[in-house]
């Protein structure tokens, strides 16, 4: 019961802090693609893989007092900062849900920009295609981002490191 | 004449309670409707277990798919000769609209959760796989099945085309809101679709709404909000979904343990239990088949499986109480222990269900989100996000009510001896 909520809380506990809703979406998606157990389903939206279920569950965790969401004004737009509350930590420790150690993958993602994570998650979304097809697909669906060859190379290296 | 341009000698029409008539003139559309994969949608209810709450809600994905096709057909008629619209995309839009829900399985939502499946993957598999649907689409063009799949998958290069079927004011939502309102018999869910269609304008990457149509869109957003809470998230429907999930889990557990002899072997479920579902297996399983199993399993010797099936078939559902996990999670742990002590397996007779367990969504204005908001086109040509212009939409957008309920088999608790301490304790916890 509430295992899906607990798994997300474990992510926040290990990440300590996540800044940005889009970044949060991409981080959970990348973890999911690395084999970590998250039940939230993703589909492709205008800017990449997006999960409405994740967005609702985050709102629930905030309403329950398990997660703190701070809205901050940043260069003319709002961004959201999340961290697990003491009450959330209490729930997590009593939930009995066993969670994997995501620390090293989270740390690698923390070192990257949101734009880069957006590229990686979009590439992973098409991972049933060949390498060339994936790059073509990404260029088609994210034509405005103008990703360079170097961006793709770095993203492939990142994906390789994450999965090995 | 090329197959893609072929027209029927006479227009075919389907009588429809929501749109009055659904008009088919293209040979390709008519042929797709006749395929076994599309006809299968007659045996998948649009609203899953909702018919156990609203008895009229027996309509199918077949009805809805035709409805979405019809709305897209009307939008395209209005778009003809307008800037940004390419009429070469017409047939692609119609096919994608018709086929967008093709991969839905029986009781889609519960099934997908229990077996970790995604109907979008099966929609894609049916369109691209060895099926009649694929055969017809390939007659149009070798790449046509892939294009249709890409539109449904939202990865097609022309985002205007994608937005007809999947955006925050798309043909899919406009059909299901009206259709679900009609068949459930509720009075919310109605809005002036004709007006919305008249004020829709094609733009480079999206459809926008002329500012003068704002009030019709407000009505649409409000009806979406109302339907979510009054129909889609009805606690009785959720109770039926909880039982349905428990049946599937129990049958899977018995099958995997390999120590139980089913009177009726779960042949149609085997590949689902083993996570080896082929397209062929998937297409064989519809709601008629599932309900047949549940009927027969009422006679199984496994007490839990037979009881859960009886509950579902005879609509003897779990009762529910409001539950706040934020303040009551310790009580939940106690409750589980009490159920165990009373000999009532909490794995199958106790469940917390949350609003995030359902896939329906609210209007979101964008911000840092991934979702493209609804844009109004001002007389100057400038685009403004809907909630910035409409106070009504502003008041409900981006704000989600969340809700949790605790479902349990009250009758099993009532059967415990009157004087038993465990019964008293369970009631004390449930009363909060």
* Main sheet attributes: strand count, strand direction, barrel closure of chain A: 3 strands, antiparallel
Helical content of chain B stands at 40-55%
- CATH homology superfamily name of the domain at 3-232 in chain B: Hypothetical protein af1432
* CATH uppermost class of the domain at 3-232 in chain B: Mainly Alpha
Spatial order of strands in the largest sheet of chain B: 3-4-7-8
Largest chain-chain contact?
A: A-B, 41 and 36 residues
Count of helical stretches of chain B: 23
Look at the helices and sheets of chain A and give the structural class.
alpha+beta
**Helix-strand string of chain A:** HEHEEHEEHHHHH
SS-based class of chain B: alpha+beta
Number of strands of chain B: 9
Q: What is the percentage of strand-forming residues of chain A?
A: 5-15%
List the strand order in the largest sheet of chain A.
1-5-4
Total domains of chain A: 1
In CATH, the architecture of the domain at 3-232 in chain B is Orthogonal Bundle
- Radius of gyration over C-alpha positions of chain A, nearest whole angstrom: 16 Å
How large, in whole angstroms, is the Cα Rg of chain B? 24 Å
Largest beta-sheet characterization of chain B: 4 strands, mixed
Oligomer description:
heterodimer
Look at the structure and give the mean pLDDT of chain A: 89
Distance between the termini of chain B: 72 Å
Could you give a quick summary of the protein structure above?
Chain A has 164 residues and is α+β, with helices and mostly antiparallel strands.
How are the SSEs ordered, and which strands pair?
The complex is a heterodimer of chains A (164) and B (432).
Chain A (H helix, E strand, L loop, with lengths): L2 H13 L2 E2 L1 H13 L9 E3 L2 E3 L1 H12 L3 E8 L2 E8 L1 H10 L7 H8 L3 H12 L5 H11 L7 H15 L1
Antiparallel strand pairs in A: 1-5, 2-3, 4-5
Chain B lengths: L6 E10 L3 E7 H7 L2 H4 L21 H19 L10 H10 L8 H8 L3 H10 L3 H9 L3 H10 L5 H7 L5 H14 L8 H7 E3 L4 E4 L3 H19 L2 H23 L12 H4 L5 H6 L2 H11 L5 H11 L5 E4 L2 H17 L4 H4 E5 L20 E3 L5 E3 H4 L1 H6 L7 E5 L1 H5 L6 H11 L1
Parallel strand pairs in B: 4-7
Antiparallel strand pairs in B: 1-2, 3-4, 5-9, 6-9, 7-8
Helix pairs in contact in B: 1-4, 3-4, 3-10, 4-8, 5-13, 6-8, 10-12, 13-17, 16-17, 18-23
């Amino acid at each position: 019961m509430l295992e899906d909520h607990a798994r997300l809380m474990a992510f926040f506990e290990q990440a300590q802090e996540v800044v940005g809703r889009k970044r949060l979406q991409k981080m959970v998606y990348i973890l999911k693609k690395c084999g970590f157990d998250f039940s939230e389903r993703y589909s492709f939206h205008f800017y990449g893989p997006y999960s409405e279920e994740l967005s609702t569950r985050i709102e629930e965790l905030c309403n329950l007092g398990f997660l703190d969401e701070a809205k901050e004004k940043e260069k003319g737009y709002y961004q959201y900062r999340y961290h697990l509350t003491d009450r959330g930590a209490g729930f997590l420790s009593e939930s009995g849900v066993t969670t994997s150690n995501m620390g090293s993958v989270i740390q690698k993602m923390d070192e990257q920009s949101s734009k880069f994570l957006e590229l990686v998650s979009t590439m992973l979304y098409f991972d049933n295609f060949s390498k060339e097809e994936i790059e073509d697909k990404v260029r088609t669906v994210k034509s405005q981002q103008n990703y360079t060859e170097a961006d793709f190379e770095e993203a492939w290296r990142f994906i390789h490191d994450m999965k090995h | 004449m090329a197959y893609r341009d072929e027209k029927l000698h006479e227009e075919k029409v389907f009588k429809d309670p929501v749109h009055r008539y659904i008009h088919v003139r293209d040979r390709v559309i008519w042929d797709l409707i006749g395929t076994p994969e599309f006809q299968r949608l007659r045996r998948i209810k649009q609203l899953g277990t909702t018919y156990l709450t609203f008895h009229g809600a027996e309509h199918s994905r077949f009805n809805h798919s035709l409805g979405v096709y019809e709305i897209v057909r009307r939008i395209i008629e209005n778009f003809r000769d307008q800037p940004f619209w390419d009429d070469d995309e017409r047939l692609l839009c119609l096919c994608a609209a018709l086929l967008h829900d093709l991969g839905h399985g029986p009781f889609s939502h519960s099934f997908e959760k229990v077996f970790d499946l995604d109907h979008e993957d099966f929609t894609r598999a049916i369109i691209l796989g060895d099926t009649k649907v694929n055969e017809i689409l390939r007659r149009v063009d070798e790449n046509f099945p892939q294009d249709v799949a890409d539109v449904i998958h939202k990865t097609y290069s022309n985002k205007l085309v994608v937005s007809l079927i999947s955006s925050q004011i798309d043909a899919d939502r406009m059909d299901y809101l009206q259709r679900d309102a009609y068949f459930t018999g509720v009075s919310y869910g109605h809005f002036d679709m004709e007006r919305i269609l008249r004020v829709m304008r094609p733009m480079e990457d999206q459809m926008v709404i002329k500012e003068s149509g704002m009030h019709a869109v407000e009505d649409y957003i409000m009806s979406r909000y109302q339907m979510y809470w009054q129909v889609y998230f009805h606690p009785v429907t959720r109770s039926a979904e909880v039982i349905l999930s428990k049946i599937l889990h129990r049958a899977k557990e018995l099958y995997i343990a390999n120590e139980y002899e089913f009177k009726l072997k779960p042949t149609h479920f085997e590949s689902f239990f083993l996570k080896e579902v082929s397209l062929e297996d998937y297409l064989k399983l519809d709601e008629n088949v599932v309900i047949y199993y549940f009927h027969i399993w009422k006679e199984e010797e496994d007490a839990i499986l037979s009881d859960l099936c009886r509950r579902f078939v005879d609509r003897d559902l779990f009762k529910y109480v409001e539950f706040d996990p934020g303040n009551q999670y310790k009580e939940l742990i106690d409750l589980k222990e009490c159920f165990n002590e009373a000999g009532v397996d909490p794995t199958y007779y106790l469940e917390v269900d949350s609003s995030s367990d359902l896939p329906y969504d609210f209007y979101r204005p964008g911000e840092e989100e991934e979702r493209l908001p609804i844009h109004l086109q001002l007389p100057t040509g400038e685009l403004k996000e809907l909630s910035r212009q409409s106070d009504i939409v502003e008041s409900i957008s981006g704000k989600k009510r969340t809700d949790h309920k605790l479902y349990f088999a009250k009758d099993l608790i009532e059967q415990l001896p009157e004087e038993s301490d465990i019964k008293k304790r369970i009631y004390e916890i449930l009363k909060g």
